[in-house]
Write a structure and sequence with these properties.
Shape: globular
Number of strands: 2
Distance between the termini: 26 Å
């Protein structure tokens, strides 16, 4: 996976908004985070997956959840 915004995560800084980009396929979001996209934090970096990549990788995403989720 690649960086989601083409730079480092500034922890929600609003000084320079970066376009949201899918970490898997690179598809740009239309505006702010769409409700159909998936957000995860990997190695301290927030990453987003578009709805298509989220569906295609659902088993891998579920496999990383703690057993307490089930």
């Amino acid at each position: 996976m690649t960086s989601l915004s083409g730079g480092s995560d500034h922890g929600g800084s609003t000084t320079e908004p970066h376009p949201l980009v899918c970490a898997c396929c690179g598809t740009p979001a239309d505006g702010p985070q769409p409700t159909t996209w998936t957000c995860s934090v990997e190695n301290g970096v927030r990453q987003f997956l578009c709805d298509t990549c989220s569906r295609e990788n659902l088993r891998a995403i579920e496999g990383r959840l703690d057993s307490s989720w089930w």
